[in-house]
Amino acid sequence: ELSATLNCIKSLFFLASRSFKHGYCKMACKRNPEDLAILYSNRAASYLKDGNCGECVKDCNMSLELSQFNVKSLLRRAAAYEALERYRQAYVDYKTALQIDCNIAAAHDGTNRMTKALTETDGPSWREKLPPIPTVPLSVKEKLAQMSAAPSDKEIKKAQALKEEGNALVKKGEHKKAIEKYSQSLKHNPTEVTTYTNRALCYLSVKQYRDAIRDCDEALVIDSNNVKALYRRAQAHKELKVRARVFIIALQLLIPTQRNQTLVSKVSAGFQGKRQNKKHFLP
């Protein structure tokens, strides 16, 4: 069973890589550069895990061109540089990540390792040989601070009440009214992942697929392994006929837990039937 799962992952990854080479993901994500940045960053993580640090750096570079201060891409590129013994570049990336969030333990540890390595190789004046360290704009820091600010108990209760009203409307099939309630709820508590996934479901029902994708993306910022967000985003992309993107999301869905297997099967069945007509698939 494990072998079959690994083979499935390899097949999907091969198809996803072909999609990148032929530019399908670029076309799919032309209107959302941050979405494409995430794809490159995710593939970089796979390269890093396999020890292919050169390709990891290339994908991180692409990701950071699209989303300059993507923390995961900075940390992955720093780790790849470190493995390649390019300690100056690694130090710069670790320090940049710390400007964005000073509480990242991996960045602190990496900075300490690079300081020690550079002191040994370049001597006491090692800082003079560093590339420039980018300055993270205050607007970026403020945006991240707003995202991390916890709502008050009063706001959470109000948001929960509005979300429950939305849930009741969904049961009645009144999806547009439910969207309004969920939107109001998120104004009070923008950190509740289920409100995003519930509103995404409503957007799917009223065929507002791009709005559904945006809500799923927001949910995945909060919980990167949220199965409902991954599944509903895959549904929306499928409806928009973005075949290559669906494959990459399906790859993310292959989380080895029993409760996720039904969703994986549904997504797999959804695009297996499309392989018969190759002119609508991959070249």
UniProtKB/TrEMBL annotation:
GO terms for cellular component: cytosol; mitochondrion. It holds the Pfam family TPR_2. Coiled coil: none annotated. It comes from the Eukaryota. The keyword Cytoplasm applies. One of its GO terms (molecular function) is heat shock protein binding. InterPro entries: CiliaryAsmbly_MitoImport, TPR-like_helical_dom_sf, TPR_2, TPR_rpt. TPR repeats lie at residues 159-192, 193-226. Gene3D superfamilies: Tetratricopeptide repeat domain (1.25.40.10). It is found in: Cytoplasm. This is Translocase of outer mitochondrial membrane 34.
